[in-house]
Design brief:
- By secondary structure, this protein is an alpha/beta fold.
- The radius of gyration is 20 Å and the shape is globular.
- β5, α2 and β6 form a beta-alpha-beta unit.
- The termini are far apart.
- α1 crosses α2, α3 packs antiparallel against α4 and α3 runs antiparallel to α7.
- The chain has an eight-stranded mixed β-sheet, with helices on both faces.
Length: 375
């Protein structure tokens, strides 16, 4: 990966083209840790129009390295095209001619919402001083967004992976504000294996000489924890895809024009290199650390008397679904969650592993249509 021309961070920063982003300035949010974020903001995008009674609003929540750009082309301000083009839009399952769709960038993220790459009150990037976050902190910033937009109650809250954790937390923490929820590819609490995979990625980032305790944002172009973030992405991507898919696509074939015996790469190595380079160009290593830590701390039962008691607070009509080949958040997690909610888990059939909820848009669209049918 050639990093000589790369800035220290792939974060969106003040002065960059805003694209479709809109911004909500938060009123000094106090986090679960007790820390306060003065001057914080939440970036978000919307599609469709809000009905006068606010009853047609749907909240869509992204995964770890996602953002608010659900649909629309790549371009100034948006390094990639919308990540759910096959689900959200006119005439699609989440029909923006009917529904007012809202997608925020998570607090602590790096695509417009306040995160480690943004200036602290002293004018320097927060960097390693940026406080720890929980899934509850992310949701409570999104509650402020709902209030600012005039949405008293979401017709539906939808999310996968980290977005699924937030959708579930919304239903538990704000039961009167959620009419229905689609929780994809997550469980009620992080498991030891999920925490272990995350820990390995965080060690990779922190081992990079340019991590500097998180205070790398003012390094010159070509410097930054690019290698560490790239390695973290390679590890993560292996957990996002399935062994069956990797074998079918790559097997032990060499990359075209390269000989592994002479220092070249296997095709699967080239694939991982490609995804590492893409992420380094559009993401911030410190945001990756803070949001990954939030995922590891996910537990809806914490300080609520346990998972069963927490799920008993949910009033929303809830669909829970997982991908049959997901080895990071396996279907057993969704079955246990669904059982706790008094329902049954749905299965998305896919060879793409955890990323199946992003890839199998037709199956996900069916779940979204079912969820919204009675909304």
């Amino acid at each position: 990966m050639n990093t000589r021309s790369l800035p220290a961070t792939g974060a969106w920063r003040e002065g960059d083209p805003p694209g479709r982003r809109r911004f909500l300035h938060l009123d000094r949010p106090r986090l679960e840790s007790g820390a306060v974020l003065p001057g914080a903001r939440l970036a978000y995008e919307t599609w469709g129009s809000l009905d006068p009674d606010g009853g047609n609003a749907v909240l869509v929540l992204h995964a770890l390295t996602g953002d608010a750009h659900l649909r629309g082309p790549a371009g100034p301000g948006h390094p990639a095209a919308g990540w759910w083009e096959g689900v959200v839009g006119p005439g699609l399952a989440l029909d923006t001619d009917r529904w007012f769709v809202v997608a925020p960038n998570a607090l602590g993220g790096c695509q417009g919402s306040t995160g480690p790459a943004d200036p602290a009150p002293d004018g320097r990037p927060w960097g390693g001083r940026f406080p720890s976050l929980t899934v509850r902190d992310l949701v409570r910033s999104e509650v402020a967004l709902a209030e600012a937009l005039g949405v008293p109650r979401w017709a539906a809250v939808i999310g996968g992976s980290l977005g699924g954790m937030r959708a579930l937390e919304w239903a538990v923490d704000q039961p009167d504000r959620v009419g229905s929820a689609l929780v994809l590819c997550c469980g009620a609490a992080a498991t030891a294996e999920q925490i272990a995979w995350s820990s390995t990625q965080l060690h990779a980032i922190r081992a990079d000489p340019d991590w500097l305790g998180g205070d790398f944002h003012e390094l010159p172009d070509g410097r930054g924890p690019h290698a560490g973030l790239g390695l973290a992405r390679r590890i993560a991507h292996l957990t996002y895809r399935s062994p069956q898919e990797l074998e079918a696509r790559f097997g032990s074939a060499p990359q075209d024009g390269e000989d592994p015996a002479a220092g070249g790469r296997y095709a699967v190595e080239s694939y991982l290199d490609h995804h590492a380079a893409k992420l380094v160009r559009r993401f911030d290593a410190a945001s990756y650390v803070r949001l990954t830590e939030a995922m590891s701390g996910h537990d809806v039962g914490r300080d609520r008397g346990g998972v069963a008691a927490a799920l008993g607070r949910v009033r929303a009509r809830t669909l829970v679904a997982g991908v049959d080949s997901d080895r990071l958040f396996p279907p057993a997690d969704q079955r246990a969650l669904a059982e706790g909610l008094g329902t049954s888990a749905r299965i998305i059939r896919s060879a793409h592993g955890h990323d199946g909820f992003l890839v199998e848009t037709e199956q996900v669209a069916e779940l979204v249509a079912e969820l919204l049918k009675g909304a």
